[in-house]
Amino acid sequence: MKTQFFGKRSKRGAAGVLAGAAAVWLTAVLMGGCGNNDSGPVTPNVGGSYKLTVIFEPDSNAGYITPAQAQGTMYQSGTDVTVTAHPSVPGKYVFLGWTGADSTKDDSVAMVKMNGPKTLTAKFLEKFAVDVVADPDSGGTVERYPDSTYYTYSAPGLPVELTAIPNEGFVFDKWVSEDTTYLEADPIVRVKNKDSKYTAKFNPLPKVVATATEGGDSVTIEPYKVGYNRGDSVTVTVIFDATKYLFQGWFAPGASSFESRDNPYTFEIGASDKVLEARFRSVPAKRRL
Fold first, then answer.
1. Domains, in order of start, for the chain
2. At 271, phi and psi to the nearest 5?
3. pTM, entire model
């Protein structure tokens, strides 16, 4: 059948016809297809998927969440998600709370419904260390008061008293940090807004070592100490059989480093170790009584 049009056709009218035809076609597709296609109705994705983002304060080193895979995951609309915050270093970081959560449980657990992109913020308080060590380890013990692994910083910083106690045979020298040297054994320092370390330096005290070559039965050192202070008076004595051996004297290390023929021999401690050797030679048999 041939259709005839009378009158002038407007451009707007043609556009309306085309739009109407497109709407009819789209409805047919959504309701069950068109033509002989009987694959069933097509259901549109009405809800969509949304991303969960977790932020850590003061920085990403402060903590982590479980389950870890929740970070950055795309969730179907309406999904309920639960995450738990943990400090990366217990004691150094203290969990304060969540922002952005629909609800929380036991402080560290956050729950959120994914009805759109969501951002959770886990807030932590960072504490700071005041580490104290002895150098060398055998040189002494170190203490701090108040004693704690980590401290809360609040300007100008909590005062902390350091104490260095030398072991026997050592003397305290100084405390050293990255930017300061303290000559007193018990300085007061302050907690900083960063980790800090203080090293107590100990120096070994001078020692006295006295031995004897063949002929010497025993050597005594009076008073005997692991280490001596400079200026201390010390006496060494060697016991020997004078009928068999002739005492040649006290020698320091070295072939000709003669010290004294006194026995007992008394001397003052200097800045370094004192090493002595009592040397003897045999008395010829014909001279022995």
1. 49-126 (3.10.20), 130-204 (no CATH), 208-287 (no CATH)
2. -85, -15
3. 0.70
